[in-house]
Amino acid sequence: MITVGQYYTLAVSQVVETxxxxxxxxxxxxxxxxxxxxxxxxxxxxxxxxxxxxxDDAPIATTDKPKACVGEFAYLQVVAATDVxxxxxxxxxxxxxVPFAEQHRPLEEGNxxxxxxYLDKIDGRxxxxxxxxxxxxxxxxxxxxxxxxxDLIIANSTDLGxxxxxxxxxxxxxxKDDVFQRLSFGQSIGGYIKHTRPDGKIDxxxxxxxxxxxxxxxxxxxxxxxxxxxxxxxxxxDPQLITKSLGMSKGAFKKAIGNLYRxxxxxxxxxxxxxxQEVAPSTQQHDDEEATxxxxxxxxxxxxxxxxxxxPRHERIVIINKEPxxxxxxxxFEGLVGSGGEAKNMIADGVVLLxxxxxxxxxxxxxxxxxxxxxxxxxxxxxxxxxxSENDK
Length: 393
Known about the structure:
By secondary structure, the chain is an alpha+beta fold. It is built from six helices and 26 strands. Helix 2 (209-226) crosses helix 4 (250-262) and helix 5 (327-333) crosses helix 6.
């Protein structure tokens, strides 16, 4: 069904003195004035037009583009505040009205506001409302998928970050820890679905997972080139220092250096990261120095692995006194993360390898001889030999 407030491709049925008559089916013949036509048409041609109501409330067509269609949000400026409401400039000759009853607070001339366009049920006119929460429902069903590309309009700022309107239909949240650029109210910007929560609410990001990883890796490599191949940042660095130096969160930094390490593009040292030349596996250097053992945790005890030709660099043995042990506990006890919660997040983000494969189960049972790798560290589990203990005699 054809209605005003939308774009349509319509056939020119007749050329008249004032313009072109279009066959708008249910609406009947609709005039496309010559002043609003992209170029001259002839009978039988098709024109891509936007339909709205003229000053006499009659349907009219234009090839000019409004700033929003019916059913969409837009950030529009008030050009006149009158006794019947506020009129907004939406890009067409006739301004759009926001009645007083549809103003969340009095709209002032010269200021811009985020509004939603709809068809008034009484007279069918294209009308706007600034009562955004009346239009959007936090619990409206949706079928968005992780990493799906979406259009966003920045609608509000909160302690968590920014509330954004997704595809003109749903609320979403951009967390401030994921935003490293200036955003302004009413700004239109592309984004991605980061996560859909069990309650249906939506978390957003400005970059897809792969795009963000590629961008972060490129940023780190560029900084390494600038700093002659070494940067004193590592997984224990202050988060604010990482953000100031690289414009990314500490979590994103750790994921990026972990990926770069696995590709043998960088090495991870005690005091920072270093850009290295790619070399064949047969010529890779091994760490022959004996390191200070890591302090034992309640369940897990660490010793340094004796160097063998088949042992990758930085690999060390972790002695466990029982098996199995849950994966996230090993990451926590071994200091690869700061807390159990962080361990679970890193596993869920796919940056933890178990036996050279991505492992997503936070409570995955780890056994002796399993190998865990994350953020440039590689550990091999070994069950403590109790055969010679006094209790076994």
